[in-house]
Amino acid sequence: MKRVVSAQEMRLYERERFADGRADSLEWMERAAQGVDALLRERYGDQAALVVCGGGNNGGDGFALLRMLKNRGVRCAGVLLADADRLVGDAKTNYLRALDCGVRFEAALSDALLSQYGVLVDAMFGTGLSRPLAGEYAEAVDRMNQSGKPIVAIDLPSGVDATSGAILGCAVCAAETVTFAFYKRGQLLFPGRGCCGEVTVHPLSHEPPDGAGDVFLLERTDAARLLPRRAQDSHKGKNGRALLCVGSARYTGAALLSTAAALRVGVGLTTAAVPGAVKPAFSALPEAMAFAANGGADWDAAACEQAARLLEKSGAVCIGCGVGDGDVLPLVRAALRSGLPVVLDADALNQMAKSRQLLDMLHPNVVLTPHPVEMARLCGESAEAILADPIGVARRYAQQWNCVVLLKGATSCVSSGGEVRLNISGNPGLAKGGSGDVLSGLITGLLAQGLPAFDAACCGAYLLGAAADEALELLRERMLLARDVIEAVERTIEGW
User: Fold this and answer.
1) 3-class secondary-structure state, position 269
2) What sign for the dihedral angle of Cα 142, 169, 161, 384?
C-alpha cells in the first residue's frame, strides 16, 4: 500500500528531514524538477514547453525545471506571475540560476504566448494553497485550461486543496501530475482527483519514504495478497458458507447479483434466503441454494424468523440488497446477536437509520456499505458534509460504531476506526444500479472464507473496480452492466 498524506503531514515530513540533516531543501527542489523533466521527456519528447510559475517553492521547482529544459536544448520560456524582487530562499536561488543559463521570463500569460508552445507546465501553487485563486492567477488558470494544450502539474494542479480535494475558486485541469514522495489526499478525492490526470509519484530521497501514517491507497498487490488461498485438497465444506438475505418481488435482480457475486468469489456453499415470490428467479443461478423464507413478495416477521434459523449453519451473512420496504430489522438484530460476520447494505441501512439503537449492537465483524446519502441518514450529517470529508467521516463513525465502514464513491474510503484505505479502481460504468449488490456479495463471500472484516471490505472494493476495468476491455462504459462485472471477477482473480 502507498501512504497518502495531507498538506500538513507533508510539511511535517519535510521539516523533520531538513531539521535533522537527512535532507537538503535545495537538493529536494532539484530532484523534484528532475522528476518533472523525466516525465516531459518520456511523454512529450522535445516539444516546446511554457512553464507558468508562482513565487513560492512550487515556482522554485518550475525555475529549476526551466534550467534543465534549457540545458538539454528544449525551447522553453517561463511566465513569472509574482514579483521577482520578492523571491526568497530556494526559489530565488533557482530563479537566478535559470536567468544565468539564458531562460527568458514573461510577466503575463497571453493566448498569443500560449500558442507558441506544445506543452504547458503548472508551477504556480503546490500543497500550500489555502485560499481561492483570484486575479492574475485565476486568469492564468482559465487561459491554460482553454488553450487545448496538455498541462503537466508540478506536485498538485493549482487550485486543488491538497488535503480535501476541494477546488479553491478554480483549478488547472492537468493531463499529468508529478507529485513527490507520497500521494496527496486531494489527488485521490473528488473533485480534485478529476483535475490531476495521471499521477506519478517521484521520490525525493534515496531512502524509502517513511511508511508511518494512517491513510493508504489500495493497490492490486494488496488485494491479491488478501485473497484466501485454496489448498489442493479443497472442497466446498472448506471454502465457507455464505447466507444472503436479499431481494423482494420488486428487486429480484439485486438478489441474483449479490448471490452470484458471492459464488464467483469462491464461497463453497451459498444460500439465498428470499421472499417466496423471488425463489423461481433462482432457476437462473443453479449453483446457489435458494430458500423461500415466506410465501409472499416481501420480507415480514415470519420471513425474518425463518431466515434467522439459517444463521447457525452460516459463516457470514449479508442483509439488505433489494429488500425494499419489507421489514428486515428483526433479522438484523438476530444476525448482530449471533456474532457472525455481517454485511449490511442498502435498505437494511435505511431501516437502521430509523431504529438507531441497533447501532449500539454493531461489532468489529460488521461491514456497513453506505453511499453518501445512506451515510447521511445513518449518522445525521448532511450529504454535503460527508462528501467534503469522506476520509474523516469513514474513520469517525467506524470508531464510534465499533465496526468497519466502507463509504462508497468514485473513491471509496474503508476504515475500522483507525487506518483508512482508499480504493480508486473501477470506472464510470459502475455508476449503475446493481454495482452495490455485487460489492456486498463479494465482501460476504470473502468473509465466509475467513477474511477479517476490514480486509474483506478492502479486497471486495478493489476487486469490484478491477473486475469492472477488466470488463471494460470488452464493453464501453455506457454498456457495462453489473452482471458483466461478476463474469469478469473470475478473469481478474486468475490474472493475479
Assistant:
1) strand
2) negative
Which domains are delineated in the chain? 2-212 (3.40.50.10260), 220-495 (3.40.1190.20)
Amino acid of residue 465: G
Residues sharing a CB contact under 8 Å with residue 155, sequence separation 6 or more, in sequence order: 32, 58, 61, 126, 127, 177, 178, 179, 180, 184
Report the 10 Å Cβ neighbour count for 212. Answer: 8
H or E element at residue 91: helix 89-100
Sheet of 105-106, strand order: 105-106, 76-80, 49-53, 119-123, 151-154, 176-180, 198-202
pTM above 0.90, yes or no: yes
Q: What is the C-alpha to C-alpha distance for residues 323 and 350, in angstroms, rounded to an integer?
A: 11
- Describe the crossing of helices 89-100 and 25-44 by its angle, rounded to 10 degrees: 50
Mean pLDDT by runs of 10 across the 496 residues of the chain is 96 92 94 98 97 98 98 98 98 98 97 98 96 98 98 98 98 98 98 98 81 88 85 72 98 97 92 98 95 98 98 98 97 98 98 97 98 97 97 98 98 98 91 92 96 97 86 50 75 78
Contact between 65 and 51 under an 8 Å Cβ cutoff? The reply is yes
